[in-house]
Structure formats: C-alpha cells, structure tokens
Amino acid sequence: MSILVTGGAGFIGSNFVLDWLAQSDETVVNLDVLTYAGNLANLASLNGDERHVFAHGDIRDREMVDKLLQAHRPRAIVHFAAESHVDRSIHGPDAFIKTNVEGTFKLLESARAYWTGLDGEAQAAFRFHHVSTDEVYGSLSADAPAFTETHPYEPNSPYSASKAASDHLVRAWHHTYGMPVVTTNCSNNYGPYHFPEKLIPLMIVNALAGKPLPIYGDGLQVRDWLYVGDHCSAIRAVLAGGRVGEVYNIGGWNEKPNRDIVHTVCTLLDEMRPDPAGPYSRLITHVKDRPGHDRRYAIDARKIERELGWRPAETFETGIRKTVQWYLDHADWVAQVQSGAYREWLSTNYTAR
Ligand code: NAD
Ligand code: TYD
C-alpha cells in the first residue's frame, strides 16, 4: 500500500511526510517540482529510507503523473502542492493560476483516469484529499462568528482566489464524476521547516540577524494559528474517517493579532537567546500595509471534532516555544534556504515598500 503526496518537500507537506512515516510503514510517493519553497533538506532524515519515494516533477505534467500513478498504485492522493504566499501572489499571480488552478485540474484528471481503472473495492476505498485554506472564505469583521464549512466563498487575494478555484474544481469532480474527494480548509500554520518569507519564521530569522521586524499596517490583523503537527494529525484523521464529498475546517482555536505574535516571538527570544544589544522588540517597525489585506480569519473547527474526535494537541504557548527552539537549533537549515532567490524576494517585498 502507498499514498501519493504532492508538494511533500514544502513546509506542511514535509512535516506530513515525516509524521506519516513516523507512525506508519506505508510508502509515501512524494511528487514535488521543487520551487523556491520546496526543499529536500527538510526530508534529509529519510535518506536511504525505502518507504519514501521522491518523484521530481510538476503536477501539471499529465503523462508523468499518469505513469507515476500506474507505477505505484496509491490508495490515496494528498494534494499539498501549491504556490502559497499571499505577498508573492500580489507581485506575480501567474504562477498561482498555473499551479493552484491548472495544476489541480490536471492532477484531478490524472487521478480520475487512474481511479476509473481501479477495481470496485479499490475504487470505493480511494481518496483524493485536497488541502486548502481558510483564506477562501475572505475576511471577517471583529465580532463575526468564525468560518464554518458553509461560509460563502469570498476570496480577496490572487492566492486565495486561486485556492478557491481549486476547491471548486475538486467539488465538481466529486459531483460530476463521483470521485471520492475530501477537502480540508485550514488556518495559518507555523512550526519547523517554515520558509522564512511567512510571518513567524521571518520574525525569528530577522530578529536573530538583528534586522527590522516589519509589521504590515497597524498589526491588528487577526489570524488563527495552528501548530503544523496538528494540521498533519487532522489530515490523517480526515483521510481515515472523513466522509466522501465533505469539507472539514481545521483550526487552532487560537486567534491572535499579528502584533501579539511578533511580541511573543521577541519575548521568547529574549529568554532563549538574549541579545546584548537589548530586547528584540526594539527591531519592530511598522511598514506599508499589504494591498487588500484581510483583517481577520477564524475557524470554527467543531465539525471535525464532532465527527472525527480531532482537536489540536498543542496550545499556542507550547507550539511557539517549540518552533522558536527549532529555529535556534537549525541555523544550518536557515542559512541554506537564504539563497540568492530568497534575498531577491526580500528586496522585492520590503525594500521598495
Ligand atoms: P509551501 O509553499 O511551503 O510548499 C509548496 C510545495 O509545493 C513546495 O514544495 C513546492 O515545490 C511544491 N510545488 C509548487 N508547485 C508545484 C507544482 N506545479 N508541481 C509539483 N509541486 C509543486 O506551502 P505550504 O505552506 O506547505 O502549504 C501546503 C498546502 O497547504 C498548500 O496547498 C496551501 O494552500 C495549504 N495551506 C497552507 C497553510 C499555511 O499556513 N502554510 C494554511 C492552510 C492551507
Ligand atoms: P503570512 O505569514 O504571509 O500568512 P497569510 O497572509 O497567509 O495569513 O502573514 C500572516 C500575517 O502577518 C498577515 O496578516 C500578514 C502579516 N505579515 C506582516 O505583518 N509582516 C510580514 O513581513 C509578513 C510576511 C506578514
């Protein structure tokens, strides 16, 4: 038995592959094109482990994906591969349409051809698990109830619009062709192997380098933070017991304004790696806001708890401490991802801001 994971060299995908193989002997075929966000160093601990099969390729390459499915005959596809950074989607939406929309469409078509050819029992047991985001629901006012699975889709960024389109394709492939799909919409993740273009790792990495900590606008935008290991356990729960055709929201019950997140990171670093120059919060700077910046996301995760008994294991306090410790312990990983392309991105997003 095996599963096929797409985007398994990225942040959440690599955590998922590591978690999966820590708990199961079922082979993971990992299809990843290795964009700037994909990093095989995340999976270095699996070198020589036959349960991990890495396939370098693009989800849009029908012929290659068709062959991969025939060669490995997975019982499920867990689809993480995406362009995932809102700020990059503002500067260059093209790649988001190509991977998130066209890529999901092509992958669904490969999956459908493969699934149609399975025998009855294998066909019924097959799952296409689409990993998506709470950002498809748009922005909440301060006192609005959290997003449930039936909240209207109101995406506001090129990233969230492309993910919304991919969610709709997955839904349609179930309704039209009967494909056994499940979709999960998760809130903001944080944890090990998080590329330092996103808020939490950027703040840790910049603080340690004595660089400014750029907060967009007033910093009162709210996100619902979930430790990545909890996202992985939720996906496993949905894959194992989620009802076909259903959507499950995944969240941390942990809404916090960005400003608080940055201060928490600074306080932890003050304790764990004090800087003789003074508290890290001295580096905080408020910079021009993100265009179309969503004010608040919040997930109502009662459905997954009610149906599948899933709840996050980490609180924000335990998860963020582990995360800061991980970055302190993995300076080599941080140095390795700060390539020329990474420096170019910092210049595009921050220098001219
Ligand atoms: P990431 O950007 O860290 O990783 C994406 C991975 O996909 C990379 O390894 C990249 O090389 C690969 N990839 C990109 N285009 C590809 C293509 N055309 N073919 C094959 N591989 C390709 O992203 P992430 O943060 O790990 O997010 C994973 C998934 O989870 C995404 O679908 C994202 O929308 C969703 N999600 C992310 C968050 C979050 O907070 N990061 C929250 C909710 C949902
Ligand atoms: P991010 O990690 O990019 O995730 P998303 O936009 O998908 O929620 O950003 C999280 C929040 O942090 C978001 O409100 C934007 C804000 N932010 C900053 O204030 N400064 C930064 O340098 C970055 C990268 C994000």
Structure commentary:
With 353 residues, this protein is an alpha/beta fold. It has a domain at 2-190 and 227-253 and 293-314: Rossmann fold (3-Layer(aba) Sandwich), CATH 3.40.50.720. Helix content is 45%, strand content 16%. It has 13 helices and 13 strands. The protein has helices at residues 11-23, 62-72, 86-91, 94-116, 120-125, 158-177, 199-208, 228-241, 258-272, 302-308, 316-329, 331-337, 340-351; strands at 2-6, 27-32, 52-56, 76-79, 127-133, 181-186, 189-190, 213-216, 222-224, 226-227, 247-250, 255-257, 284-287. The strands form four sheets. The protein has a seven-stranded parallel β-sheet, with helices on both faces. The protein has a two-stranded parallel sheet with strand order 7-10. A two-stranded parallel ribbon has the order 8-13. Helix 2 crosses helix 4, helix 7 (199-208) runs parallel beside helix 9 (258-272) and helix 9 (258-272) crosses helix 11. The longest helix has 23 residues, at 94-116. The model has no long low-confidence stretch (mean pLDDT 98). The chain binds nicotinamide-adenine-dinucleotide (NAD) and thymidine-5'-diphosphate (TYD). Thymidine-5'-diphosphate (TYD) binds next to helix 7 and strand 8.
Structure summary:
This protein has 353 residues and is α/β, with parallel strands linked by helices. It has 13 helices and 13 strands.
